[in-house]
Design brief:
Elements: E1 3-6, H1 25-35, E2 43-46, H2 53-56, H3 62-73, E3 76-78, E4 84-86, H4 89-108, E5 114-117, H5 139-149, E6 154-158, H6 165-170, E7 177-184, E8 206-211, H7 217-235, E9 239-244, H8 261-274, E10 279-284, H9 290-304, H10 321-336
Parallel strand pairs: 1-2, 1-5, 5-10, 6-7, 6-9, 7-8, 9-10
Antiparallel strand pairs: 3-4
Helix pairs in contact: 1-9, 4-5, 8-9
Bound molecules: zinc ion.
The site of zinc ion (ZN) has 7 residues, from loops.
Length: 337
Amino acid sequence: MVILFGTHPKYIEHDTGSLHPESPERLTAVRRGIDISSIKDEIEIFEPQPATIEEISRVHDVSYLDALRRFCLMGGGTLDPDTTASIGSWEAMLLAAGAGLDAARRMRAGKADAAFLAVRPPGHHAVRDRAMGFCLANNIAVLAADLVAQGEKVLIFDFDAHHGNGTQEMFFDSASVLYVSSHQYPLYPGTGRAREVGIGSGTGYTLNLPFPADTTGPTFREALDRMVAPVVEAFLPTWTLISAGFDSHRRDPLTEMGLTSADFSDLTLWVRQMAPSAKVVAFLEGGYDFAALEHSTASTLAALAGVSLKPEPNSDGPINFEMIKAMEESRKRALSD
Ligand SMILES: [Zn+2]
């Protein structure tokens, strides 16, 4: 089996300033994950090609991209209270947005079975006309839109601790993209309630699992089996894209989720076995504890190759049946409205 690992030296030139949690050093930790992944020999590292403006403009306004390019080339600065850009951010963004397209081309040519993309800046908060939450362009959405244009059915599984508001919004009315997000709620950006289920022909194709702080693996897996499995089985995705946000790790300094790197292995194996013939591409989103990033990258890479690797034990705790039932009911009500 060949697992692609896409990363680029220019990703570190997206300079967020010395105190920002979304630091270039994150990628060093992610790279260390390869060494302990147990599938090192199956990993093929590549440097992605940049996306074109045309490719990115499937999900972003050209006027936003023009303004962002000018802002970066003038030296950058602060885009919102959380999000900064530097002179190197424009090229880093093009290369991050292009990573999925490049990986998919290689996979379609039969060169690999799955891919992990260690990109910066991350993408899932970026909306059509603005940067948001450390994200400049929505990398995973750029690939999803390209695949949909080719007639594919795309499952996006987003296990970042934050809700991927940008991705949800871009495909809210689409029946070709099934967006499934597990996240801490309430938490930034404030969206991702169970009653957000899509709109128009996209109704039912957005599935949110808003978990309270400290939720652990057993509750995750119960919610996935009960609420997500039947929807994915009916959807029959041809591609599975993962927003791999490792800030759901219990050691993450920005969030309060209760998972470990072993749980990310289980989540990745779970989604892989839900659609065994779908091609799988994972994108790095958040994750701000370096050891957690290293271990979680290793366990996710191994899972992409079908191997269960647990650098640390699974999280444990009672299954919160009441909460899952409340989420289910809220979703059902929204679907029948
Ligand atoms: Zn996050």
